[in-house]
Amino acid sequence: MFPYPSGTLHLGHLRVYTISDVLARFKHMQGYHVLHPIGWDAFGLPAENAAIERGVHPEKWTLHNIQAMKAQMMAMGGQWDWDRELRTCDPDFYQHTQRIFLMLHERGLAYQAESMVNYDPVDKTVLANEQVDAKGCSWRSGAKVQKIMLKQWFLKIKEFQEPLLKDLDALAENGSWPERVLAMQRNWLGRSEGTELCFDIQTEHPEAKVKPVEVFTTRADTLFGVQYIALSLNHPIVQEIAKQDEALGAFLQRAPDFPPDSREGYLLPNVTARNPVSTILNGNGVSEPLPVYVAPYVLDDYGSGAVMGVPGHDTRDHAFWRANAPNSTIKVVITAKANHTPRPLIAGAKNDKPMVRKGFVAANINGFAGLPSDQAVEEIVTRLQQSGQPIEKTENWRLRDWLISRQRYWGTPIPIIHCNSCGPVPVPDDDLPVELPNLPDRYFQGKTGNPLAEDVKWKKTLCPKCGSSAERETDTMDTFMDSSWYFFKFLTPKDKSPFGSAEVDHGMPVDLYVGGVEHAILHLLYARFISKFLSTTPLWQQGRLVQGEPFKKLITQGMVHGKTYSDPDTGRFLNPAEVDKTNPSAPVIISSGLAPKVSFEKMSKSKYNGVDPGKTIALYGADVTRAHMLFQAPVSDILEWDETSITGVQRWLARVLEISNAPFFPPHLPKTFKPPNDLDQPLIHILASLRHSGALKPATPTHGKPSPFETAEEELISCLKLPEQKLWLKTQETIASVHKSYSETYSLNTIVSDLMSLTNTIEAAPHSSAVTPHLAWHATAHLLRMLAPIAPAVAEEGWETLHKRTSGPIAENPKHHPLLRHNGGPSIFAWGFPSADPDSIRLLDTTMTCVFQVDGKRKFEVEIWKKPPSVTGETETRRWVLDQVAETERGREWLERGEGKLWKISGVADPHPDYIHVPESWQVVAASGGRILNVVSPRGKAGKAGGLP
Hints:
29 helices; alpha+beta; single chain; seven-stranded mixed beta sheet
């Protein structure tokens, strides 16, 4: 996801762009044509507010920040397609945002309407529902959001609600999108199946013209327990009565100040409702008039702005009823068990809790007693329909049309002209873009609100239809409108249309999208909506084949938390300068000598736990910083940034450079070594070449006898010493594991640990024969190529060193076109990503670890050959394993006849008749296929492998 140009690159930026850069470089090495673009989400309230605080034009502030962040991004070792860089604040970009708006308008998907909207009194602009948090506060300013009536522009996202929900199933396949994001979008779309029905209203207000109240419910089985009706603040009945009821008017004025979880209510005097089930059921109190309340908890846009209150079976209704009718008993009409007559709920009693689950209709409800909840709903609907009541099964959605109007300057102007004669008229395509006026800085000195509404020169224009005087729309678009389609524009950044169809059909959808989970119901939902719309237009004709979904794979990285110090007594957050960290494991508060409380929390200025990635990069280098960041935590987890452990990664990369100097070659050999043209050739080919040159010697002279091996491959493999086999097997297993992590699981942290382990193996590999340096060279070359996406500078340096140390550039024609060039020849990235050799893995996976025990007590473990198929039977298996162990250094230490520890312990001179390596009268037990070898003394429990798992 492209960044907002705040001016400072933080660790969250560094993490997301390191992840995307690593994966882009990997795909480059695989030979793909990779587009790894960059741009700037440059419009929006944050930039305008920051500019107002500084008294400068938002454009100046934004462009300055872009240059600063661009320099910081260059320092982090990333590789982006800067030639495709875009900024949403450029007229060349936002003219296409305006075109897309006009396409929506032409299809009837953009409209203007009077609406009760969320208004931010601090930023002085309207907010979409998605931009108001659960506490009713603005996502940006944190101010308590107000409800006001305004004429606003909306996009009909609800027209796409069915595919937006249904196609989440396709995104769930193979874990393409994180389940958390899918769940958040499903919840926000909020489809619920239920019943729509009407409650008749009786009122003594002669001037009030009231219609039956429509109610949507997902639990029609609880109709018998309705005890009140609650209306939203802007319900037509409420607004009508408020004209005459001063107390109601005062309540409505106070309501915006109520907390989000308020249970305040206003009882409408002389207004009652009638339960529709009273037409089919006598008794049970269903014929009693129901009080009608005005309740802030009822949303205007849920159903018809009315709910039926069932305090016995809904937690929210229960809380409201107890607050407004505290002494009333509460009906219970659904029970957990069939044929049960429940007692009503009494205020203050222990059982005063609603039964919210489905169950069975209570035994005292005539005609419906004992019916399961779902069956009761069907029966209620059928019988009410037969009685002539307006009721039907239907569905309801939480999603509302997208409000895109913003009463601010720094955004894309809405391309509409208002004419007194013609109404709202679209700006002709030839007149696009409608550019923002270049206002002087003084317009932004301490002011809020929308300067466009005050700029008469810009606002006044002519109607495109009739030519009479008219005014431009002064609202600008929500910045999420720009980010809902920007990824298309990267494919044709210079095109005069929003984007070229051929390029888009070839390049879309995006193969991999990386960004934070906080965008799940804002940017990602809007991007899916606009993309689905574009797939119905000539701009993206092939979009229909992918249901208009813009992103194949989504990775949501976790947040970065910083180390935080606080006073154990007061809880006050401490500046790191207040803490003595001489001993990192035992920090001390300088002023008190106490040990501070240490935690990892979301970075903020107030907690003094922010980290400047620029300083870290300057101190340790970009590659060390990148590798450390990836190594610290799985991509999707919270990363607890702890710089005290970064030196471990620094030492590892230094060791990589050391082995790149080919220390495994004897001093006289490096320059005689000629690397092969194909770095990924199978081991068998390498060994055949080494045999031809005389470097590879047979394992055992055959004196002209037929080879004991079944295949030539096995015979070649047998020429390798066991440490050489282990080195090559480790290399190939690492290639397979790392490739899977890069391409399937995206577990980038395990890549770093796998490469560390391979580095250890290369360093520790003993010089077993003339073949060892050749295999170590290949292992090092593979290590550097696997490391390149994560630590490109170290990999390039190591690559150049490795070839200068041996025989220069490998070949004139690298595997791929050199995407990067280096002074020492073709870049390491031109040589592609290593491919695992499955045949060598199969042939080399011939050893196992054997634990040697004496009387069930572990003495040592060694690596031995796996048992061949020709060895059968218990005695032969024991003899085979014992012989293998006896040939090892540790085995000789224990089993060498007369000198070994086992013989000295036994005091016996004669060997066992079946097992010559152990004394007479001792027993041998092999378990787990030879992975455990237990030698049991006459004093031990004969025949039992003590300590076996």
